[in-house]
Amino acid sequence: MRTIFWFFSFLSFAVVADNSLHNQKIDELLITDAMVVVGVGTPPEGPYDIHIKDGIIKQMGNSRVDSDLRKSVEQHLNADGGYVLPGLINMHAHTMYQRAGIDMAQPYQHYLWLACGITSIRDLGSDLDETLKQREQSAKHEIIAPRMFVYPGIWGNHLEADLEKTITSYHKKKVDGLKFGMMDKQTFTAASKLAKKYGLKVANHVGVEDMNAWDNIKAGTTTIEHWYGVPDAALKGVQNFPPDMNYSNELHRFRYAGRLWREADLDKLDMVLQGMVDASVAWNPTLVIYEASRDLQRAISSPWFNDYLHPGLEKFFQPSADSHGSFFWGWTTTDEVFWKNNYQIWFKALRDFAEKGGIITTGEDAGYIYQVFGFGLLRELQLQQEAGFHPLEVIKHATVNSAKVLGQGEKLGQVRIGYTADLIVVNGNPIADLSVLWPRNIQPLTGDESTGGIIWTIKDGIPYHAPTMLKAVREMVKTSRADNPINYLVTE
């Protein structure tokens, strides 16, 4: 297999990488000599020692002054001047058990998510019973996996009686919310009323329907996913589709999605954004999942594919009308140019939304359109910086904002006394360069498994050694490739 080297400007940090604490369910842990990014948008502080007991942050003291913590706590994890952030929250995740007919063992996703600093996921529309089972196993620490918030999907148009039956059933199973997608206005209105009746949050993928963001505003939707429905609500009439447009043809669908933002009336768009803010409708843009549309070559040559791309994903990503999001059989330079312009207008809309007081979160939608789990969310952070947000704001989107939207703002999303100890320990300063969050050992330069950016991901006070999990993923992929040779995106 070809070797790709990623070089980073290594800063003067040397986070201790002894993996003996990996997956150790210990009562107390002390992280020493850590620069702390709280998550609320304030600059880094420290160095601090962080005392964790029973999965909760109990104390934080000045590393240079307060030595009592070091004497009283037996287990230490030395950050050695590295940075500690709240665990990242992936607000648009899909738990998958197979892709393109190829089995995909669950540790593959779980390890990638954790190794990329993701301590919580909002699962949108996966196999409900299996995901609920994994939610429980994760909560009990029976499996190595992020914390899970389960939102089963309801797609398409339904009679109100059928919606009542379905949503009542989901409520009895104690789901955390619902995902709606591709609904007409009548179905959406009825489904939203039922969700409100049961106190269930709603993530809505609008699509091109007879409803748009104004309907989400009226219904009090929790989050708008991607961006469908927002520019649609600011059109003068309908989008200027060509006569041969077929929305069921995904090449057409994504091609003309790349022309939508330019048709939005800016004054009307301003009113839509203000309406979302006033109704507390948050926006989960998933900038990353459309990036291939503006730069296909970058997407298909991602360096982490060599060691981390599961053959099920590789096969699914091949251009095919049978695989959702694999629409690139007729993609052109003209399409990419339109999408590049699309992003600039979208970026500005996000900035305007935030400046009005809107809540932006982070999600990846990986498993589709050349995006690999975990890597997708880290790229989302970079794209949000490209959109014009300071890295501290981006971290806030991925932590504080996302926790608030989940209804967990008093427990998750901050490095603060009394909060759940969901943390990441980073060998570098992500505020100076978000790329230090990426696994530096995408292809190990020396065989040393301790060179990565995120060294430790801590969930509920339990430390997980990122390089150890990444090594396990590489072995899973190697084994699965031997059984399922594809060799489409990966070069032997």
Radius of gyration: 22 Å
> Termini distance?
4 Å
CATH names the topology of the largest domain as TIM Barrel
Structural class, please?
alpha/beta
Which CATH architecture of the largest domain would you pick?
Answer: Alpha-Beta Barrel
Question: Can you tell me the CATH class of the largest domain?
Answer: Alpha Beta
User: What spatial form do the alpha-carbon principal axes imply?
Assistant: globular
Summarize the structure.
This protein is α/β, with parallel strands linked by helices and 492 residues long.
Report on this model:
The N terminus is likely disordered. The protein folds into 2 domains: 139 residues, Urease, subunit C, domain 1 (Roll), CATH 2.30.40; 318 residues, Metal-dependent hydrolases (TIM Barrel), CATH 3.20.20. The longest helix has 23 residues. α4 runs parallel beside α5, α6 packs parallel to α8 and α14 crosses α15. 34% of the residues lie in helices and 18% in strands. Strands 1, 2, 3, 4, 5, 16, 17 and 18 form an 8-stranded mixed beta sheet that branches. A 5-stranded parallel beta sheet has the order 11-12-13-14-15, with helices on one face. It has 16 helices and 18 strands. It is globular. By secondary structure, it is of the alpha/beta class.
